[in-house]
Amino acid sequence: VDWSGSGSGQVEVMETNEEGCDTTVLKDVHEAHKTVPAISEADTVCDYTASHTYSTTNNSGHTYTWSVTNGSITSNSGNSITVYWSGNGSGQVEVMETNEEGCDTTVLKDIHVEPKPAPAISGADTVCEYTTAHTYSTTNNIGHSYTWSVTNGSITSNSGNSITVDWSGNGSGQVEVIETNEEGCDTTVLK
């Protein structure tokens, strides 16, 4: 029997013997309500990132069984999990919600795991103290933003993926760039 929904139903059978005598029997059936969980959280995440929380409504007395592909569950609190995404490409979050009557529903959420940028800073490693106009750059990726900082020097011009630095004093200095792609995935490198 395919049941059409929650509520109550009946199964009836009538048995007739060869003499034409019959008996009818009814059985009441309770049709338990199946909940349909909905998974919250973003569909696009950055690879090799943690603390992505996925959840569904917490229904009292229900159990939740979670699984992920292309990532790992780092914590599970019943109707909510935290995931670390590894690698880029596609991933998936799945939850099966089971009610008190044993009725269950499974839903899937496809996740796009976006690669992080991989900037590499080019420019001089050794410079003379109090010198100017040293250029440092990384590959220009269209749509990406670049945030630069330096220690023991000052940025005199910034054209996105390239900066010019005036170095002050002797000792060590440092150039840092944070490259961020359109999805908000970022990587920081130091030179």
Defining traits:
3-stranded antiparallel sheet, single chain, mainly beta, 4-stranded mixed sheet
Topology as a string of helices (H) and strands (E): EEEEEEEEEEEEEEE
Kindly provide the radius of gyration, computed on alpha-carbon positions and rounded to a whole number of angstroms: 31 Å
SS summary, helix count:
0
Tell me, briefly, the overall form: rod-shaped
State the end-to-end CA separation.
Answer: 69 Å
Percent strand: over 45%
Mean pLDDT over the residues? 88
DSSP helix fraction: under 10%
| Class from helix and strand fractions | mainly beta
Q: How many β-strands, per DSSP?
A: 15
Query: What strand line-up does the widest sheet have?
Result: 3-9-8-5
Which ranges are low-confidence, i.e. pLDDT below 50, for 5 or more consecutive residues? none
How many strands, what sense, and barrel or not for the largest sheet?
4 strands, mixed
Give your account of this protein's structure.
The protein has 191 residues and is mainly β. It has strands at 7-16, 22-31, 44-46, 49-55, 63-69, 71-76, 80-85, 89-98, 104-114, 134-137, 145-151, 153-158, 162-167, 174-180, 186-190. The chain has a 4-stranded mixed β-sheet with strand order 3-9-8-5, with no helix packed on it. It has a 3-stranded antiparallel β-sheet with strand order 4-7-6, with no helix packed on it. It has a 3-stranded antiparallel β-sheet with strand order 10-13-12, with no helix packed on it. The termini are far apart. The model has no long low-confidence stretch (mean pLDDT 88).
